[in-house]
Amino acid sequence: MRPGKIIVWTGGIAGGKVVSVLSKYAETKNAKLVDYYFKELVGLVGGPAAIALAYYMSEKQGDTAISDFIGLFGATLFIDRLVNFAAGELDITIGSRVSPASVPRAPPPGSYPVRISPYAAQERLPFQTDMTY
Q1: Whether 24 contacts 30, CB under 8 Å
Q2: Mind spelling out the 3-state secondary structure of the chain?
Q3: Residue 115: its pLDDT value, please?
Q4: pLDDT: is 100 or 85 the higher one?
Q5: Buried b (16+ CB within 10 A) or exposed e, 73-108
Q6: Which residues lie below 8 Å from residue 128, measured CB to CB, with a gap of 6+?
Q7: Above 70 in pLDDT, residue 35?
Q8: Which residues pair with 122 in a beta bridge?
Q9: Higher pLDDT, 110 or 43
Q10: For residues 104 and 18, what is the distance between their CA atoms, to the nearest angstrom?
């Protein structure tokens, strides 16, 4: 693989990601774009349109570098928007996990009393779970 191909492929994939991020940013800045499904139009219509343009260019001109760039650009844009749209519809969170170390847990049994009121104290018993009352 020539260095020129690597640059074309990297540029096409990065370009699709950049347009996806910019369309998401534009929708957060202008609330009216949400009504027109701006991100979906850019990704789900613009992506296949770029792929069709790349196919047309490769058939007519025979130049593979530009058509590869545009095709990868469109494919990345389409796949990124399709995955994000499906995740939004199915209520799936992409890319955010809660690490077990950051979840607050109850102290081990007998370490210190849990204050319920100023007049009473209660300790966890050894068989109790991590829920504190």
Answers
A1: no
A2: CCHHHHHHHHHHHHHHHHHHHHHHHHHHHCCHHHHCCHHHHHHHHHHHHHHHHHHHHHHHCCCHHHHHHHHHHHHHHHHHHHHHHHHHHCCCCCCCCCCHHHCCCCCCCCCCCEEEECCEEECCCCCCCCCCC
A3: 57
A4: 85
A5: bbbbbbebbeebeeeeeeeeeeeeeeeeeeeeeeee
A6: 109
A7: yes
A8: 114
A9: 43
A10: 37
**95: CB partners within 8 A, 6+ apart:** none
Could you tell me the residue ranges of all domains in the chain? 3-89
What pTM value is reported for the model? Answer: 0.63
Q: Work out the end-to-end distance of the chain between its first and last CA atoms, rounded to an integer number of angstroms.
A: 63
| 73-77, 86-90, 129-133: range with highest mean pLDDT | 73-77
CB 49 within 8 A of CB 78: no
* Nearest-angstrom CA–CA distance, 87 and 23: 17
In whole angstroms, give the CA distance from residue 24 to residue 38: 8
User: For the residues 19-42, what does the mean pLDDT come to?
Assistant: 86
Which residues are within 8 A (CB) of 98 and not within 5 positions of it... i.e. 6 or more apart?
Answer: none
Find out whether 27 and 33 touch, Cβ atoms under 8 Å. yes
Whether residue 97 has pLDDT greater than 70:
no
